[in-house]
């Protein structure tokens, strides 16, 4: 499986998509510094999970499938490997990119905090970035499958639109866990100390309570397992016949 994941990442080595795992955090930090100066951490983290990270994920997932569609899947149809392993390796490759870009974002924000103002301490920053990583994983197989059934642009636009619109619906209510898109924006509130709209959270707010974090992450991970399994099964079910 390691070799399959490495192969998927090598296919992307000359693409804009692969460069995004570093470029996306750099752009976010630059935007945060331009808009907020010394309070770069607050602005950068907020722009990260409300805008930059969702579009980055959509581009990765759409790119890894669209490159196969351009060749009518000839690069994988000739391989003596089960289709479910190929699909799963693609999912894991994008998951690796998501994890790496989360670390780059945390490292960049922490470095900026050292030279400007440490609004968010390193442990809270790391915790928030890892929570975002865990709660965005479930979207990866769905975007990839949408790209397979439709095309690159449609998959990116639908993913981006859902994350922008649905992530704000109910994010601050007690029933936020019913909307998987709102979970990331809600559970990072105690770590980044700000509302999903970027406004600092007042002292004593219920949004600073970390009690909802573990159940919400659990829901996201269960959803991720279901989405991974379902799309792997659907891809394998098609045997060696593809769109």
Any overview of this molecule?
Helix content is 71%, strand content 0%. The model has no long low-confidence stretch (mean pLDDT 88). The chain is mainly α and 243 residues long. The protein has one domain. The chain is built from eleven helices and no strands. Keywords: Membrane, Transmembrane, Transmembrane helix. This is Lantibiotic immunity ABC transporter MutE/EpiE family permease subunit.
Gross morphology: globular
Query: What is the H/E string?
Result: HHHHHHHHHHH
Structural class: mainly alpha
Quote the distance from N terminus to C terminus: 25 Å
Percent of residues in helices comes to over 70%
Instruction: Specify Rg, calculated over alpha carbons.
Output: 18 Å
Unreliable segments of 5+ consecutive residues:
none
Question: In this structure, how is the largest beta sheet organized?
Answer: none
**Quaternary organisation of the protein chains:** single chain
Question: How many separate helices?
Answer: 11
Number of domains: 1
What is the strand tally?
0
- Taken as a percent bin, the fraction of beta residues is under 5%
Mean pLDDT: 88
Organism: Sellimonas intestinalis
Keywords: Membrane, Transmembrane, Transmembrane helix
Protein name: Lantibiotic immunity ABC transporter MutE/EpiE family permease subunit
């Amino acid at each position: 499986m390691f070799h399959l994941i490495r192969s998927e990442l090598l296919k992307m080595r000359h693409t804009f998509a692969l460069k995004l795992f570093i470029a996306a955090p750099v752009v976010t930090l630059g935007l945060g510094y331009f808009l907020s100066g010394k309070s770069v951490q607050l602005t950068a983290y907020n722009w990260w999970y409300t805008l930059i990270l969702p579009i980055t994920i959509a581009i990765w997932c759409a790119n890894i499938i669209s490159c196969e569609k351009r060749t009518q899947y000839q690069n994988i149809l000739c391989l003596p490997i089960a289709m479910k392993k190929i699909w799963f390796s693609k999912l894991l490759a994008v998951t690796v990119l998501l994890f790496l870009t989360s670390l780059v974002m945390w490292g960049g924000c922490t470095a900026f905090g050292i030279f400007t103002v440490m609004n968010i301490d390193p442990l809270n920053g790391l915790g928030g970035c890892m929570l975002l990583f865990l709660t965005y994983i479930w979207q990866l197989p769905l975007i990839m499958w949408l790209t397979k059934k439709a095309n690159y642009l449609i998959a990116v636009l639908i993913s981006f639109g859902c994350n922008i619109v649905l992530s704000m619906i109910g994010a601050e209510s007690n029933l936020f866990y019913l909307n998987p898109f709102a979970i990331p924006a809600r559970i990072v509130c105690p770590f980044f100390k700000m509302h999903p709209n970027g406004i600092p959270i007042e002292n004593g707010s219920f949004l600073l309570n970390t009690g909802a974090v573990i159940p919400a992450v659990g829901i996201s991970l269960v959803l991720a397992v279901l989405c991974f399994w379902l799309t792997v099964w659907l891809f394998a079910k098609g045997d060696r016949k593809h769109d």
